[in-house]
Amino acid sequence: MAVFINDTCINCGACIDECPVEAIVDEDDNPTDEDTYYVYGDKCVECVGHHDEPACATACPTEGCITWNAIGESPEHREDISDEQRSNKEPVVE
Ligand code: SF4
Ligand code: SF4
């Protein structure tokens, strides 16, 4: 995984066009059947090489909605994010 959209998502759509690698899908295409937007962990690069911080989280108006998640299939991840931030699913934008 990479970054994670939690159930506070209000489906506003502000994040989806900000993603440089098209890792985000809307609620209709969420493979978990949650009624929220969804980040594909095998596509998300945490905006490494694109932006100083994850652009989806910068654009999201819902506080704490987009969080760090465990490193998994993501092709890139941010080295400066601690295991604790990831395991606690801490918000990308405080
Ligand atoms: S962190 Fe960047 S690459 Fe990952 S989903 Fe958000 S905008 Fe896309
Ligand atoms: S910007 Fe935030 S609240 Fe809006 S759809 Fe994306 S994750 Fe959900």
How would you describe this structure to a colleague?
- This protein is largely without helices or strands.
- The chain is 11% helix and 11% strand.
- It has two helices and four strands; from the N terminus they run βββαβα.
- The model has no long low-confidence stretch (mean pLDDT 96).
- The site of one iron/sulfur cluster (SF4) has 16 residues, from helix 1.
Keywords:
single chain, two-stranded antiparallel sheet, 4 strands, binds iron/sulfur cluster, about 90 residues, about 10% strand, 2 helices, little secondary structure
Structural topology:
Elements: E1 3-5, E2 24-25, E3 38-39, H1 55-59, E4 66-68, H2 83-87
Antiparallel strand pairs: 1-4, 2-3
The protein binds iron/sulfur cluster (SF4) (2 copies).
One iron/sulfur cluster (SF4) is lined by residues 2-3, 18-21, 23-24, 39, 44-47, 54-56.
- Give the amount of beta strand, in percent: 5-15%
User: Overall pLDDT, averaged?
Assistant: 96
- The secondary-structure element order is EEEHEH
Structure ligands: iron/sulfur cluster
Q: Uncertain spans, ≥5 residues at pLDDT below 50?
A: none
Q: Count of DSSP helices?
A: 2
Strand order across the largest sheet: 1-4
Number of strands: 4
Secondary-structure content class: little secondary structure
Q: What about the largest sheet?
A: 2 strands, antiparallel
Radius of gyration: 12 Å
Please bin the fraction of helical residues.
Answer: 10-25%
General shape: globular
